[in-house]
Write a structure and sequence with these properties.
Layout (H helix, E strand, L loop, with lengths): L1 E7 L4 E11 L2 E12 L3 H8 L4 H20 L4 E6 L1 H5 L3 H12 L3 E3 L2 H12 L7 E7 L4 E7 L2 E8 L3 H5 L7 H12 L6 E6 L1 H9 L7 E3 H12 L3 H6 L5 H4 L2 H15 L3 E3 L5 H16 L4
Parallel strand pairs: 1-4, 4-5, 6-9, 9-11
Antiparallel strand pairs: 1-2, 2-3, 6-7, 7-8, 10-11
InterPro entries: ATPase_NBD, GppA/Ppx_hydrolase, Ppx_GppA_N
Protein name: Exopolyphosphatase/guanosine-5'-triphosphate, 3'-diphosphate pyrophosphatase
Length: 295
C-alpha cells in the first residue's frame, strides 16, 4: 500500500509517496517518490499580504502534477497541508477552495501548533532521555519544541522564517520573543542537545564535518554558514551547486538555528532525515488504520 503527503510551505511545495511496510507488527514507511518545487509563496504573502493570481496558477498546476503522480503510483490515501504563507494570506482559504475545485486536491491550512505536532510525532523517535530543543525553521515560521525524557514539555511557533528574513519582513520583536521563550523554558543547568529539521539545516549538515552519522556541532554550523556567506548568489548556485531557491535563504535560515542554539547553550545538533511530510504520512496511516480497523 502507498500513501502520500503534500507539504505546501512558504518556500517550496513537496510531495512524498511512501510504501507501508509491515514486519512483525512493526509498521514503517519507505520513500518511493519525492518531488520538491520552489513555489516561494512567502514572497507574495510577506510583501503583499495575499497570494497573487500568478502564484495561484502555479500552485494549481503543481497540484495537478502531484495528483497525476499519485494516480500513477496508485496511492490509496493522501493529505495535503499548507503552512505559514497560506495561513497568513488574506485569500489563502479562497485560493485553497479554488484549487480543490479545479484539481480535486483538498488543501488543509494548518496552524503552527498542528504543524509542530505533526513534525514532533516523527522526531521523537530519534530522541533519548536527555533534554532536547527541536528547532524547525521554515520559510515563514520557526517552531520550537522542548523534550525531556522523550516527553514534549513545551512548544511555540514564532513568525521568524528564512523567506520572511530574506524579504526583510520579520515581525517586530520576533527575535526577542524566541530568546525569551528559550530562556524561560530550557534548563541551562542540564545538557541541551538541539534537533534540527527543515531543508536548510539538512543542506548545512551535508556540508558539515560530523561528530557522528546524525550530529555535528554549533561551531561547525557557524563555519559552514560563514563559508557559504562568503560566496555571491551566483557562485552559491554554480560553485556550491545549491538550488537557486536554497542559495538565497540558507544563510538567514542558518542564523536562526545558530541563534537559538546559542541562547539554549546547546553545542551539539542532531539532524534526522525527517520533517513535516513524514509526520503527514504517519497521520494518514493512523487515520487509514482506524478507518479500516488495521492493527
Amino acid at each position: 500500500m502507498k500513501l502520500a503527503a503534500i507539504d505546501i510551505g512558504s518556500n517550496a511545495a513537496r510531495l512524498q509517496i511512501s510504501t507501508v511496510l509491515h514486519n512483525d507488527n512493526v509498521v514503517s514507511f519507505k520513500r518511493v517518490e519525492y518531488v520538491r518545487f520552489p513555489l516561494r509563496l512567502g514572497h507574495d504573502v510577506f510583501n503583499y499580504g495575499a497570494l497573487t493570481p500568478e502564484s495561484e496558477a502555479r500552485t494549481t498546476k503543481l497540484m495537478q502534477v502531484y495528483k497525476l503522480l499519485m494516480e500513477l503510483h496508485e496511492v490509496e490515501e493522501y493529505m495535503a497541508c499548507a503552512t505559514s504563507a497560506m495561513r497568513e494570506s488574506t485569500n489563502g482559504h479562497d485560493v485553497a477552495k479554488r484549487i480543490e475545485a479545479l484539481t480535486g486536491v483538498k488543501i488543509n491550512i494548518i496552524d503552527g501548533q498542528k504543524e509542530a505536532e505533526l513534525i514532533n510525532n516523527v522526531v521523537v523517535q530519534a530522541l533519548d532521555d536527555r533534554q532536547f530543543l527541536h528547532i524547525d525553521v521554515g520559510g515563514g515560521s520557526t517552531e520550537l519544541n522542548l523534550y525531556v525524557n522523550r516527553q514534549k514539555v513545551n512548544s511555540k511557533s514564532f513568525k521568524v522564517g528564512s523567506v520572511r528574513l530574506l524579504e526583510g519582513k520579520e515581525i517586530k520583536g520576533g527575535w526577542r520573543k524566541i530568546e525569551d521563550w528559550v530562556e524561560e523554558n530550557v534548563d541551562s543547568s542540564k545538557e541541551v542537545v538541539a534537533v534540527g529539521t527543515g531543508g536548510n539545516i539538512s543542506k548545512l549538515f551535508n556540508l558539515a564535518s560530523k561528530t557522528s552519522d546524525a550530529s555535528t556541532t554549533l561551531a561547525e554550523i557557524e563555519r559552514i554558514r560563514d563559508y557559504i556567506a562568503g560566496f555571491s548568489q551566483e557562485d552559491r548556485i554554480h560553485k556550491l551547486r545549491l538550488n537557486a531557491d536554497r542559495a538565497d535563504v540558507i544563510v538567514p535560515a542558518a542564523g536562526i538555528y545558530i541563534s537559538v542554539m546559542k541562547w539554549a547553550n546547546a553545542n551539539e545538533i542532531i539532524v534526522p532525515d525527517l520533517g513535516l511530510k513524514d509526520g503527514i504520512i504517519q497521520l494518514v496511516y493512523s487515520q487509514y488504520a482506524k478507518k479500516h480497523k488495521v492493527h
